[in-house]
Amino acid sequence: MTSADDGRHAVEPLLDALTKTWRRLRIGGGPGSPVPIEYEVRLRKRYSADEVRERLRRDGQPFVVGAELEPVAPAGTAQRTMTEE
Questions:
Q1: What is the mean predicted confidence (pLDDT) over 46-58?
Q2: Is the overall model pTM greater than 0.85, yes or no?
Q3: How many whole angstroms separate alpha carbon 78 and alpha carbon 21?
């Protein structure tokens, strides 16, 4: 996002329309632009991940400069990694 506040106001109504559920996880900090904002979303059956990503990029202009979607493992199926020292 070019601005956290403007980006949120552009994206969150789109998430309401395009997803079953969503929640904001993190707003990136630090100097400079762009400002990353991370959301967890559950897609509606009628929209693919590619469609949602393209709508966010297109309809979120000029505040959205990029959008990435990454699948998340269902609860209880995530693999655990253990590091030994």
A1: 93
A2: no
A3: 21
